[in-house]
Amino acid sequence: MDEPMDYASAGVDIDLEGSAVASLIGALSKSVRAPGSPGAPVDLPGGFGGLIEFGDNLLAMATDGVGSKLQIATSLKQWGGVGIDCMAMNVNDLLCVGAEPIAFVDYVAVPKPDPVIHAALGASLAEACRQARVTLAGGETASLPGIVTELDLSGTALGWLPKGEAITGEHLQAGDVLIGLPASGIHSNGYSLVRRIVEHAGLSYEDEAPFDPTHPHRELLRWTEGKATLGEVVLNPTRIYCDPVVDLLDAARGDASFSIENIHGICHITGGGLSNLLRLHDSLGWSIHTPLPVLPEFEWLQAAGKVETREMYRTFNMGTGMILAVAKEHATSILTWLEQRLPGTAVVGEVTDEGHRVSHAIEGVEFTHY
Amino acid sequence: MDEPMDYASAGVDIDLEGSAVASLIGALSKSVRAPGSPGAPVDLPGGFGGLIEFGDNLLAMATDGVGSKLQIATSLKQWGGVGIDCMAMNVNDLLCVGAEPIAFVDYVAVPKPDPVIHAALGASLAEACRQARVTLAGGETASLPGIVTELDLSGTALGWLPKGEAITGEHLQAGDVLIGLPASGIHSNGYSLVRRIVEHAGLSYEDEAPFDPTHPHRELLRWTEGKATLGEVVLNPTRIYCDPVVDLLDAARGDASFSIENIHGICHITGGGLSNLLRLHDSLGWSIHTPLPVLPEFEWLQAAGKVETREMYRTFNMGTGMILAVAKEHATSILTWLEQRLPGTAVVGEVTDEGHRVSHAIEGVEFTHY
Predict the structure, then answer these.
(1) B214 and B339, same structural domain?
(2) Is residue A283 domain-resident?
(3) Which residue ranges in chain A fall short of pLDDT 50?
(4) Distance from CA of A59 to the nearest CA of B (A)
(5) From B64, which residue of chain A is nearest by alpha-carbon distance?
């Protein structure tokens, strides 16, 4: 195979997924809960977290799974990070609406209960709860031998925020500064392509990584001695951004020199890569003129899979796991605040009025739809 | 095969599941959220729904899936009821702590997105939201061809109640009256055994039901004309008890002749059947002296599978989907209130102080552990 690889040829049809989800959403009628009552829906652009009313507050729910990253973890019998991935995918979505995550429930589907898997998941979820500062409020383990052939793990996070303080994107404007938060690795998206490339390269996940995985501001979760294996690099858990983002929101709602109104948008860079930015606003553009350093695993994946650059940025986070759009006049103080708590955080670009488009320092990396 | 069938021989090892779940829970540390802060855990016996603090209120989360009932739905390409099953399994658990369900998120895992499945799920979830009176606050569709071979569906429900008004079981006492709410069918538990028995009987789910499925106070969700098929009977959606239980709780907290303190316990009869009652209290007993009528599908399953009577009651709801334990002096008014809204509701037994034991009008149907 010498064709360049892409996400669709790795077995994922984003358009088909979109139309399937549209079928589901199209069948849903309006909520039966009247405006003002507990549970009444609150419409927000972007749709990272579902918001509902609750008295003087809003509650937000997010649900997501770890996806095919699990298959690598299961093949290596290393589930120590997947609870963190599961937590991260959910709580990072909640942060995007300005919510503080407070509780989490997990759903585990296995062909057969396995105390070894469950003990590892328990430890991983406990660490995830610590990092995200949430209560594990429940969970379900389903034995479904006719439906799943190996572990599936998903979860739901619950968050809250004061009414009127949601981050809605309505204050976004050209000139806003984009601040990027560094990723810890591939996070939890694009693994169909990762697996395809590793297979094509004829490597085992137990092999030493065929590149130097050293990268500033990230540590690998290790289970071997010596040089890091490819498995340790690709399974490195998704960064949970509650620290520093919840504290930033608290400070902004408190006595910091910036206020919550200065934080105009927050974007979790998941499947779709930088094109996720387009979800925040209907017409504004996004110029990533100074991207964060690309993690070495992405450089290797691109070379080994001959993946086109644009496809890389459409599939992976490429080193930036979350982007905040903030008011220009407060960007320096917000950046300083964040950078002290999460080194590697930096200005990566700005909001523009040059069309509903993401552009990038690398020519050709451009997206006009999510 | 002429051995009597049971749940374990159908491939479900309840003890193994218990030890796997214990491994997971054992690895969890205490919550990082301090008492009094949003999200701090609230310990309750029974564990139907996970409760957390939220100002003057409590929030409750429940997560569960439809399980192997889905395999029958998928084999028939009839997913119209499974969204209701998914909702019911979750919101009925929330009712047990006295919470009003307000929102729901679904998690769908498929080998490949399929607009037909998703449209059916969307319609089913919309009807489920209507019946449970909740907002669908989000959802996730995961394409996991390496993990699932066919549809898996689970979800998470969120509910709330005023602080200090949780149904904790602490007021339970000998003499309390047990009120049973009728089930609509097999609900969502015991399907490994159902499938085994139907296979053993050499029947197709598209065959006419080999018994008269008529039963008072339940209607079947039909997709064929003429006599009901076996598939229509076994897939009949789980009853959602929000109506009447949420209204009962509202009335009890409002101006009814009974109060919330008179409702001592609520039990969702799921996997484990009547043994679920033991989850409500550490030492009291439960005498089911006047059970609700058994649904005809259970009689047929027992005969076709030569299942022992006790095993039937340990696996299935047998016609009673939820049981309320209420103060004796208010039992008549609560029963009258419920029976007007859900015909078929009746007194089924009483709480006793004769040991931590469920006993039943049928000799031998007795449980001493969940």
Answers:
(1) yes
(2) yes
(3) 1, 29
(4) 10
(5) A140
